[in-house]
Amino acid sequence: MSLLGVDVGTTGCKAAAFSEQEGHLLASAYEEYDVKRLRPGWAELDAVEVWSKVKQVIGAVAASTGSDPVTALAVSSLGEATVPVTGDRKVLGRSILHFDARGEEYLEGLGNALEDEHLYRINGNTLGNHYGLTKLRWIKEHQPDLYEQAHKFLLWGSFISFMLGAQPVVDYSLANRTLLFDMDQEAWSDEILERAGLDRAKLPETAPSGSAIGTVAAHIAAELGLPSGVSIITGAHDQCANAVGCGVIEEGSAVYGMGTFICITPVFCERREPKLMIERGLNTEHHAAPGRYVSFIYNQGGSLVKWFRDTFAAAERQQAEESGRDVYADLIAEIPEGPSGIVGLPHLAATGPPSFISDSCGVIAGLRLETSRGEILKGIIEGSTFYLKECVESLAPTGIEITDFRAVGGGSKSDAWVQTCADIFGRPFVRPAITEAGTLGAAIIAGVGSGVFPSFEAGVASLVHLERTFEPDPRQHAGYERSFEKYTQLWPLMGAYLRDLASMHR
Fold first, then answer.
1. Residue 232 has pLDDT above 90, yes or no
2. Does a cis peptide bond (omega within 30 degrees of 0) precede residue 432?
């Protein structure tokens, strides 16, 4: 018997089946799709196309499980975006993504009605246009026929489950990404819905992650090659499923996701004082595991490494692709041991907490004629890690503690990169055997909801296996502390430069 995890992202979807007993990966599949940009500032997913791709990956996995047929599944997905559907499971329109500009016009009015600290006490977030609230408001005002015709607006995890045959139900972590969810009441907030001018009836029911919400419809099961009666379980927001999949369910541990975004996801058991969290740009969200919360600290560190690859190693990239090699491994092999001597400000793209700066720019300081390409890459990696270290060191007043990190995602495959992180933070980094943890996390959630595991703790103990612990090197840590001090002096200088530049163009 096996458990199926499905992970739906912004540009691709995955499915993977794991054996119930040992967590062996039995089969996996991946498909990509494109973000649709019909007008400047717009960003959408074609829900019909994505649903088709999801069926493809599920079907491919189902065909490969052999004597271990799937008994239950759950979906991990991107947050914020919703899909309009009819009661008989037809898609009515595309899904507006979080970085779509539509909805910005409502922020001022909503801000006057919902003060940040008050909103945070209800929802665990402050107002922003990247959440579902403003997108739904835009649809209601600009596409009233679509709004009226829609039976429900479903977040992606609930949409895929609904199309498979489940009831229209969303888990708490995804519901939180709309700004419309009351965390303490664990239900949609009547106050926020009223102030937003939105209808409760247009939203799905809510339930904890790991709740049984139906079975795969007979005709869908036949189409995908699944056995009859496969249980559908409420999944989680992708970051929460990722945490489950690498065993981060207890207070004190944190995910260190090394993908396009470098995202730290700490776990804690009690909600923190809103003012302290808001000052640090930190959200609060239900974890998939009951009685726990998470927050997100992130930057686009993975994008910076990709930029380096495309800018400094375009020829090597082409050669590596032609020969089937991993060009990232080749480039990481060039980085020196220990501090690079380069000080990098990782603001080439919009930043995350605490300031969420969208119009900054990066710095690479300390270059000399003898500086190597590997030293520049090391400086970029150090800079993005210093950014996160500074955020983590600001956590003390909130009471959130991180004693160890679990490294997952594409970047975690590099021993040198993970060791650098451990040396900079001065804390151990643990790499699980399966570093693409989203689908495994969804599979564990499916196992909990279907009764295969009596608890999240039991599911993690059965299926999450750790490969290696990277202990910090005290000597290297001391060197990085000196580099970190230089880093912390760089941003104030850059901020002053940007202010002067802005004043020149007024």
1. yes
2. no
Q: How far is CA 23 from the centre of its chain?
A: 23
130: left (phi over 0), alpha (psi -120 to 50) or beta: alpha
For residue 345, the SS3 value is strand
Distance of alpha carbon 419 from alpha carbon 475, whole angstroms: 13
Nearest alpha-carbon partner for 253 in 266, 239, 244? 266
* Spatial contact of 30 and 98, defined as CB atoms under 8 Å apart: no
Give CA–CA dist 168/88, Å, rounded.
11
pLDDT digits (tens, 9 = 90+) for 177-193: 999 999 999 999 999 99
Q: Are strands 152-155 and 82-85 parallel, antiparallel or unpaired?
A: antiparallel
Q: From CA 495, how far away is CA 490, in angstroms rounded? A: 9
60 has pLDDT over 70: yes
Distance of alpha carbon 235 from alpha carbon 243, whole angstroms: 12
Q: Where are the beta strands (DSSP E) in 158-207?
A: 169-171, 181-182, 187-188, 205-207
The dihedral sign for the CA sequence 406, 408, 413, 419: negative
Output the DSSP codes for 49-75: HHHHHHHHHHHHHHTT-TTS-EEEEEE
Residue whose tokens read 């007008």: 39
Hey, what domains does the chain have and what are their CATH numbers?
2-241 (3.30.420.40), 247-434+473-506 (3.30.420.40)
Residue 392 and residue 401: Cα distance in Å, rounded? 9
Phi, psi of 276 (to 5 degrees): -65, -35
DSSP helix/strand/coil, 30: strand
Q: Rounded distance, CA 476 to CA 425, Å?
A: 11
Give 22 or 476, the one with higher predicted confidence.
476
- Residue 309's pLDDT band, with cuts at 50, 70 and 90, is very high
Q: Is the pTM of this model over 0.90?
A: yes
Strand partners, 214: 232
pLDDT of residue 505: 57
CA-wise closest residue to 62 among 225, 217, 229, 223? 225
The DSSP code for 336 is: P
- Distance (Å, whole) CA 263 – CA 267: 13
